[in-house]
UniProtKB/TrEMBL annotation:
The gene is blaI. GO terms for molecular function: DNA binding. Belongs to the BlaI transcriptional regulatory family. InterPro entries: BlaI_family (IPR005650), WH-like_DNA-bd_sf (IPR036388), WH_DNA-bd_sf (IPR036390). This is Penicillinase repressor. Keywords: DNA-binding, Transcription, Transcription regulation. It comes from [Clostridium] hylemonae DSM 15053. Gene3D superfamilies: Penicillinase repressor domain, Winged helix-like DNA-binding domain superfamily/Winged helix DNA-binding domain. Pfam families: Penicillinase_R. GO terms for biological process: negative regulation of DNA-templated transcription. It comes from the Bacteria.
């Protein structure tokens, strides 16, 4: 599997807009982010340029408008970041992570029920 580009938290906000609305114009990305954040249009445009340079976004010029599409799949990026988090903070041990969340009361009863359900489904499918 090819390594995905490193994306900052701010760049991730841009990517979420592109993943949701692609193909999407610079103007639409800028409008959505300036209404949801305190970023200036120039900041948003800088983040878009960085993502293009990193190979996370592709663009096509249609007359005077730039239209962006993702080159990175959202699911692949989220999986990579989740795996990286697990390795960095829990040595890749998901049981240690879940134990920490349970012991610190960060999981509600409904969260625990949902996890039980997922584990039951996985066991029924023959998962390890």
């Amino acid at each position: 599997m090819t390594a995905l580009p490193q994306i900052s938290e701010a760049e991730y906000e841009v990517m979420k807009i592109v993943w949701k609305y692609a193909p999407v114009s610079t103007t639409e990305i800028t409008e959505r982010l300036t209404s949801a954040t305190d970023w200036s249009p120039k900041t948003v445009q800088t983040l878009i340029k960085r993502l293009v340079n990193k190979g996370a976004l592709a663009y096509e010029k249609q007359s005077r408008v730039f239209i962006y599409t993702p080159l990175v799949k959202e699911s692949e990026y989220v999986n990579q970041e989740s795996s990286s988090f697990l390795k960095r903070f829990y040595n890749g041990d998901i049981t240690a992570m879940l134990s920490a969340y349970i012991e610190d009361d960060r999981l509600s009863a409904s969260d625990i029920d949902a996890l039980r359900s997922l584990l039951s489904k996985n066991s029924a499918k023959g998962g390890d």
